[in-house]
Amino acid sequence: MELKLKIYCVALLLLFFSAALFAQTPSISSLTGNPVFQDKCARCHGKNAEGRFLHAPSLVSDKVISASTDELRGIVTNGKGHMPKWGGKLTSDEINMLVDEIKAGKK
Predict the structure, then answer these.
(1) pLDDT in tens, 6-59
(2) Rounded CA gap, 89 and 103, in Å?
């Protein structure tokens, strides 16, 4: 009987810790499901926004997500390094939506 109780307790702990782990998994479905992202961003940042090339970082990294909204908006609009300027090619609403989705990428 004591062995069954220990197994039960271990199973509950594993269930608890796995639920906590999955609750912190990045949620990027709104970004990667966005047609603008798929058309304009995915070729460099990857279809899962995890980055593909040295010059195209992951958009779900802590560094990118912790950047300010204004900083991200400026990068998308004006470009940075190898990142092209999307201002004038995307509407303000499209840029704002991408930035909001990047910022919401990790819950």
Answers:
(1) 676 455 455 444 444 444 334 467 898 999 999 999 999 999 999 887 678 899
(2) 21
Full DSSP string of 7-70: HHHHHHHHHHHHHHHHHTS---HHHHT-HHIIIIIHHHH-TTSS--BTTB--TTSHHHHHS-HH
Supply the pLDDT for residue 107: 40
Residue 96: its pLDDT value, please?
95
The CB-based long-range contact list for 34-41 (8 Å cut-off, 24+ gap) reads: 34/97, 34/98, 34/101, 36/90, 36/94, 36/97, 36/98, 37/98, 37/101, 40/86, 40/89, 40/90, 41/98
Number of residues written out for the chain: 107
